[in-house]
Design a protein that fits this description.
transmembrane, membrane, Miniconductance mechanosensitive channel YbdG, transmembrane helix, rod-shaped, 420 residues, 17 helices, 58% helix, 5-stranded antiparallel beta sheet, alpha+beta
Length: 420
């Protein structure tokens, strides 16, 4: 400043004009210096550092630091340092300039740390453990404290008071703060419980009817869990709702390698009958039944002989039924099916009769958990069951349709015409 003032005086400037002009020149010089330093930092140094990291770095975390622009944000400190250094050239305004610079540097550092936390989270999710132990919720809590502390430092610097005074005043506002951050606190506790108990992970298929969620978990944060439904819509669920409410997690099915089939066909009761010799001979030719028929005939014959059963009456003793043989056929068909998991339950069971017939339920697991493949396997199995049922003298129950009623009316009309 003294040098500029003397230079202006030598050029013929005197009085207050010299002071104002010297201030203006110094301010313009500082501004140009800041612009130049910013250009050098971002235009040259950062480009060289970025190029070196992208071309020579063997670790991936360096790339995440670049992607989140941590170094770029740090570069904003350079002009601030220059301004602080030259603030002593303005004795009357040094205090205000220094205060403004400190506030600016605090804000810059807050955003630098925010970007660093984001980079840490992105680096962490590249590891497999992130699916079972996500840290995004914890990082969000750290961010809340970071911005809170940063705000306190900014305010304390502006008012010229110690940060401890503001911190002591927060105690009186704790009830209000608890109300404001209620969801965040509930989410934090829920996140800890979800992680500790391994209740849900990113990538899990969960079903939560109350919130209309049925799909894969794509994000677990402090306050929300995002689920991408099968129709590609996104459902957002409060994190604490996964603790307070019930939900279904299909991870066990996915890990087991088998997906359950549990579906029944309903047999018309009036089509159930004892097997005739002709039917047994026919069934004996079916590959999945020949061993069963031979074994069952020997077992029934032995039982009837040992107990002196009079088989001239059909209800006496034991005999094979068409529904029993049909059930044995489906059991053998399921056991030989290439897409049914051999290490899991394979069972065909008859349930209690209902008004729609007798349910014959297939209970088995496919060896492919992919939804589309699973549905295809299940459909193929029941296509076959429905198609072969008539070969066993059985009818699948179906409520009368318009076609059935029309056929019945036509039959009655033809009978009336014949009688007439």
């Amino acid at each position: 400043m003294e040098y500029i003032t003397k230079l202006l005086e030598s050029m013929g400037f005197h009085g207050a004009a010299t002071v104002y002009l010297a201030d203006a020149i110094l301010i313009a010089g500082i501004a140009l210096l800041c612009i130049f330093a910013n250009y050098v930092t971002k235009g040259i140094v950062l480009k060289l550092v970025t190029a070196y990291i992208r071309n020579h770095s063997r670790t991936t975390w360096n790339h995440y630091i670049l992607d989140h622009k941590i170094i770029q944000r740090l570069s904003h400190l350079v002009p601030a340092i220059i301004i602080y250094y030259f603030s002593f050239s303005f004795p009357l305004y040094t205090y205000l300039i220094a205060k403004g610079v400190f506030v600016y540097m605090i804000i810059v550092m807050i955003f630098v740390l925010d970007a660093l936390l984001n980079a840490i989270n992105d680096i962490y999710i590249t590891y497999e453990i992130s699916k079972t132990r996500p840290i995004r919720g914890y990082i969000q809590v750290v961010k809340i404290f970071l911005f809170t502390i940063g705000g306190i430092l900014v305010i304390s610097n502006l008012i010229g008071q110690s940060p401890l005074i503001l911190l002591s005043g927060i105690g009186a506002l704790s009830a209000v703060l608890l109300l404001i951050f209620k969801d965040s606190l509930l989410g934090l506790v829920a996140g800890v419980q979800l992680t500790a108990n391994d209740m849900v992970r990113v990538g899990d298929w969960i079903e939560m009817t109350k919130y209309g969620a049925d799909g894969d978990v794509i994000d677990i944060s402090l306050n929300t869990v995002k689920v991408q439904n099968w129709d590609k819509t996104i459902t957002t669920i409060p994190t604490y709702a996964l603790i307070s409410d019930s939900f279904k997690n299909w991870r066990g099915m996915q890990n087991s390698g088998g997906r359950r089939i549990k579906r029944a066909v309903y047999i018309d009761v009036s089509s159930i009958a004892f097997c005739t010799p002709e039917m047994i001979e026919k069934f004996r030719k079916i590959h999945f039944l020949n061993e069963y028929i031979a074994r069952k005939e020997a077992e029934i014959e032995q039982y009837n002989q040992e107990n002196g059963i009079d088989r001239s009456v059909r209800v006496n003793g034991r005999a094979m039924t068409n529904i029993g043989v049909f059930r044995a056929y489906i059991q053998s068909y399921i056991e030989h099916h290439p897409n049914i998991h051999e290490g899991m339950t394979r069972m065909i069971r008859q349930l209690a009769p209902e008004e729609t017939g007798i349910p014959l339920e297939v209970y088995a697991f496919t060896n492919d958990i992919n939804w589309a493949v699973y549905e295809g396997i299940q459909s193929d199995i029941f296509d076959h069951i429905l198609a072969v049922a008539p070969d066993f003298g059985l009818r699948i129950f179906q409520n009368p349709t318009g076609h059935d009623l029309k056929s019945m009316v036509q039959d009655e009309s033809e009978k009336m015409l014949l009688r007439g």
